[in-house]
Amino acid sequence: MINLDDPKKFRPLVGQAHQVAMNMLRPISRKYDQAEHEYPQELDMLAAMIDGLSDSGASEGAGAAGVRREENDGDKTVKNGANLASVMSIAEMCWGDVGLLLSMPRQGLGNSAIASVANPEQLERFDGVWAGMAITEPGVGSDSANIKTTATLDGDHYVINGEKIYVTSGDRADAIVVWATLDRDLGRAAIKSFVVPKGTPGMRVDRLEHKLGIRASDTATIIFENCRVPAENLLGSPEVDVKQGFAGAMATFDNTRPLVAAMAIGCARASLDLTRDLLEQAGVVVDYDRPAIVQSAAAAKLLQMEADWEGAYLLTLQAAWMADNREPNSLEASMAKAKAGRIGSDITLSCVELAGSVGYSEAELLEKWSRDSKILDIFEGTQQIQQLIVARRVLGLSSAELK
Ligand SMILES: Cc1cc2nc3c(=O)[nH]c(=O)nc-3n(C[C@H](O)[C@H](O)[C@H](O)COP(=O)(O)OP(=O)(O)OC[C@H]3O[C@@H](n4cnc5c(N)ncnc54)[C@H](O)[C@@H]3O)c2cc1C
Fold first, then answer.
1. What is the pLDDT of residues 2-58, one digit of tens each?
2. What is the pLDDT of residues 132-162, one digit of tens each?
3. How many whole angstroms from 382 Cα to the centroid of ligand 1?
């Protein structure tokens, strides 16, 4: 029988993440929304705490760095593992603040890329490194198979040339995981990812973006000019397997999309919780045991949003659980990201609407959450791209057949 309860073994982790979100992130949320580009110093202490928990084994996969598809060791037992733990703890942290979660040292999306595709030696070498992820380029967004940044083998180094834009934590991270092509004539199979440590000659941050939301998180344009990295910094295998196509690089997305879905879930949960309290203060009590049709319009709207939220939450847990259990989850990862990204935007904006002028003013964080949430339906593949991937998988069509 399916058990839809949260796994008991993750309750202490989720509880801790909730405490951190409430006591450490919420109090500085507005400060760093207003002080865009200022580094949230408070996160250093928090990151040290999380490192301590990870070292002691007390937190299994408490963040983005925890996602990894373990080798099939023949163990057929069902696992609730690091992927599930990561989505649950990230949702809690984003109940606190999405921008601050994205600014957490050593928990970058580049860390998920490393965790997803690095070999054991690289995993050890890059342990503890805070890594951003650079895929997007001027002229290359959703169509990531068209990457123009090049990596050319020269002796025992690759020489990287190109421009990457919108790199989350691009200024603050210790290293950037850069997607570049070994040979543009070989198409998407030749796209590989490279770990480029901060300070490597030839890599420079050109500028930081001003944004609608997640302002606590820095978003950088990075230029690579004859940037030399050791050949062993190419993540995974250097072989160009044309048959495998884009699968190697795409493996990262199967792990990171559920994480972004979890961010949307956490932010939407925050909006729902606060709106329910505000409605209650205004005399509208939402009764979860009675049909929406017999309740006030505001209560009915909240119930409908709760149902949407639940659907996104369960899809996200499913996608992460499948990764933990070594099941192919590209379809489910995209379904989770599409559903959570959309309901995240819908819910946070509808909560502004339900709370009226209080929702729109800076007296509460509702307006901020509606701004923060929007990016979660854009990066790591937009809403439209997720729907395209889902349609291709369901209909059994290739990317050439359905564009
Ligand atoms: C704050 C922020 C942080 C980011 N962080 C990172 C990061 O860390 N690393 C990184 O590499 N990138 C990052 N990005 C970039 C992000 O991943 C891209 O913006 C995203 O992939 C969309 O690409 P684009 O902006 O070029 O839009 P486009 O690809 O040009 O798309 C524009 C519109 O067209 C739609 N569209 C495109 N193709 C199709 C199609 N085939 N069918 C239907 N509709 C389509 C899209 O859904 C979208 O609505 C970030 C962006 C922002 C704003």
1. 677 888 999 999 999 999 999 999 999 999 999 999 999 999 988 887 776 666 555
2. 999 999 999 999 889 999 999 999 999 999 9
3. 6
Burial of 223 (0-12, 13-18, 19+ CB in 10 A): middle
Q: Please indicate whether residue 391, judged by its CB atom, sits closer than 6 Å to ligand 1.
A: no
Q: Can you read off the two tokens belonging to residue 96?
A: 């606190």
Q: How many CA atoms lie within 13 A of 362 on its CB side?
A: 5
181's CB contacts (< 8 A; 6+ apart) are: 147, 148, 149, 150, 151, 190, 191, 192
Question: Is 280 an active-site residue?
Answer: no
Indicate which residue's Cα is closest to atom 37 of ligand 1. Answer: 142
* CB distance 213 to 372 below 8 Å: yes
Per the CB < 8 A criterion, the answer to whether 229 and 198 are in contact is no
Tokens at 84, concatenated: 């599930």
Report pTM.
0.94
pLDDT confidence of 1, banded at 50, 70, 90? low
The single residue of 70, 280, 380, 401 carrying the catalytic annotation is: 380
